[in-house]
Amino acid sequence: MSKVRFSGISKIYDGGVKAVDNLDLEIESGEMIVLVGPSGCGKTTTLRLLAGLEELTAGEIYINDRDVSCEPPQKRNLGMVFQNYALYPHKTIYQNLAFGLKVRKVKAAEIKRLIDEVSVKLNIKELYKRYPGEISGGQKQRVALGRALLRGSDLILFDEPLSNLDASLRMKLRLEIAELHREKKFTGIFVTHDQTEATALGDRIAVMNEGKICQLATPQELYEFPADTFVASFIGSPAMNLLSEKESKELYSQFSTEKDSAKTVGFRPESISLESGTQAFKAQVLQSELQGADWLVYGKVDDFNFCCRSKCEISSGEVLDFYVDSAKLHFFDSTGKRLK
Amino acid sequence: MSFDPQHPAQATSAFANYKTLFSDGLFSKAIKNTAVYTASCLGIIIPLSLCMAYLFSQMINKVKYTSSFILLLPGLFPPIVLAILFMNVFHGRTGLLNQVFIMPFGGKPVNWMSHPDYILSAMVIQSVWRWTGFITLFLLCGLESIPKSVKEAATIDGASKFQIFKSIEIPGIKHLIIFCAAFLFIDTFSLFAGSFTLLGPSGGTANAGLLMVNYAYKFTRFQEYNLASTVCVSMLPILMVLTGLFCLRRRKQA
């Protein structure tokens, strides 16, 4: 089994851009950890540093307590799935899967056996003779997944593997990856900018911003106790409503009475009710949007725009009472950190 | 024209010119020389360019593009200018090749342009100098067009740099290599100006540097145009068959 430890790693590119900034992270064996964050937050760089595709500027990386910081990718013994599949275009699917094994001088009969085993699982057996240019995106990503599994390592890196697929396929492959992980118990590091993917797949999620980890926690903890306003606004869809004094003085003073040092109050769209709650406020409805089972209602108080869920459509312009439970309020200090 | 008899006395057969030609020892010599010349040019230039392109692809961008531009320059010379330039390189005593590469190491100066054993090599050297840079640039562009992530995937798969070059990069630019080979083949097979300027109309000592086109030219000096055109026409099937082979291989790839 593979454990990974990042110890104070940094990556500064030639232009002086700090992609990863003194990052510490420990990944248990058999765990699926998701690095999530907006584009440019350093999540992909972190993954590439682990794979050895980028050189560290500072810090060390340990795989199973072995310092691999200076080792080339070939020696790190890990599998990787790329966003654009990165299959070898002039090789057939079978040759694509066999390449890594051939390089490691595995016997032909053994290669056949291993590939057959993985292909049955991934449902790509009938593609053996085709070329990457002749198969669909979903099939390509399955082949790439197969190639990573065949690497013979229980550490697999996923670099936004589902971003190039359409929505329904993305969901399907996401489930397949989760199932594979449950079955094979590999250690997985999954990079994505899609928070639904992150919460669906991750045992733990590291939310990253500007080269740093803002919070490392289980999906549930992230949702219930976001460590700062960035995590609060990043996790959850639609995002948490964040209210500060400058948006609506009146509403702010109504909510913030409980914590004096709070500078921002947050509450999730799900915490707003149209029927009952401890705190009530009047607001004008801007518009409603159907989202499958329920409606998203956008409202406004002074300069404060918020969003909530409703069972029925509410016509724009209406002024209504909205209720929030004080127990479901989140408080953040002036630096954006969560107050206990 | 090639079917019109050159001399009225031979009017018996439409293939009289071909008969004359095939019985001429020089014809087979010209074919042999051309074959050796073309094969050595291809055999040297393609692998050499491939290695150079690989080395360039490993360099940082600034160096890479400046030096590959310099490499392009020899290919821009018209062959006649090139041949005149090379007269100074190949000169029997004062030539650059002798002065720099042979005499300092205690070797005897070689008379590149008049010794029958060396004439063809001299011509190959000239062609290598002319085309290697140009072909390198082509192949470099090909290597650059291979997606970085494909090479990265191969490193993750555990492949060494050489294995990636052999199994990922070369197959990735196979179509370009075939194109370059076809281009070189056509150029070298029908070379005229280069060898003409270097050796004059004679084809060099003992005809050691006689190529097909020069052979055809030889006849025109004696107004034997029918024979000259016979030589040219007989080049056609060879060019067609070999170029066809290139295309066939190309189609198999696709």
Could you outline the blueprint of secondary structure elements for this entry?
The complex is a heterodimer of chains A (340) and B (254).
Chain A: E1 4-12, E2 18-27, E3 32-36, H1 43-51, E4 58-63, E5 66-67, H2 73-76, E6 79-81, H3 93-103, H4 108-122, H5 137-150, E7 155-159, H6 167-184, E8 187-192, H7 195-201, E9 204-209, E10 212-217, H8 219-224, H9 229-234, E11 241-244, H10 249-255, E12 264-267, E13 272-273, E14 279-291, E15 294-301, E16 304-310, E17 319-324, E18 330-332
Parallel strand pairs in A: 3-8, 3-9, 6-7, 7-8
Antiparallel strand pairs in A: 1-2, 1-4, 4-5, 9-10, 11-12, 12-18, 13-17, 14-15, 14-17, 15-16
Helix pairs in contact in A: 3-4, 3-5, 4-5
Chain B: H1 16-23, H2 25-57, H3 61-76, H4 79-90, H5 96-102, H6 119-145, H7 148-156, H8 161-172, H9 174-189, H10 193-199, H11 212-220, H12 225-253
Helix pairs in contact in B: 1-12, 2-6, 2-9, 3-6, 4-10, 6-9, 7-8, 9-12, 11-12
Task: Tell me which protein chains meet in the greatest interface and how many residues each side has.
Answer: A-B, 26 and 18 residues
Number of helices, where a helix is a run of at least 4 consecutive DSSP H or I residues of chain A = 10
Give a quick account of the main beta sheet of chain B: strands, pairing sense, barrel closure: none
Counting H and I runs of at least 4 residues, what is the number of helices of chain B?
12
Q: Helix amount of chain A, in percent?
A: 25-40%
The separation of the N and C termini of chain A measures 37 Å
> What fraction of the residues of chain B are assigned to beta strands by DSSP?
under 5%
Name the shape of chain B in a single word.
Answer: globular
* Low-confidence segments of chain A: none
Task: Please provide a written account of the structure.
The complex is a heterodimer of chains A (340) and B (254). With 340 residues, chain A is α+β, with helices and mostly antiparallel strands. Chain A is 29% helix and 31% strand. Chain A contains ten helices and 18 strands. Chain A has helices at residues 43-51, 73-76, 93-103, 108-122, 137-150, 167-184, 195-201, 219-224, 229-234, 249-255, and strands at residues 4-12, 18-27, 32-36, 58-63, 66-67, 79-81, 155-159, 187-192, 204-209, 212-217, 241-244, 264-267, 272-273, 279-291, 294-301, 304-310, 319-324, 330-332. In chain A, helix 3 crosses helix 4. Chain A is elongated and about 75 Å long. With 254 residues, chain B is mostly helical. Chain B has one domain (15-253): MetI-like fold (Orthogonal Bundle), CATH 1.10.3720.10. Chain B has helices at 16-23, 25-57, 61-76, 79-90, 96-102, 119-145, 148-156, 161-172, 174-189, 193-199, 212-220, 225-253. In chain B, helix 2 runs antiparallel to helix 9 (174-189), helix 6 runs antiparallel to helix 9 and helix 7 runs antiparallel to helix 8. Chains A and B meet through helix 3 of A and helix 7 and helix 8 of B.
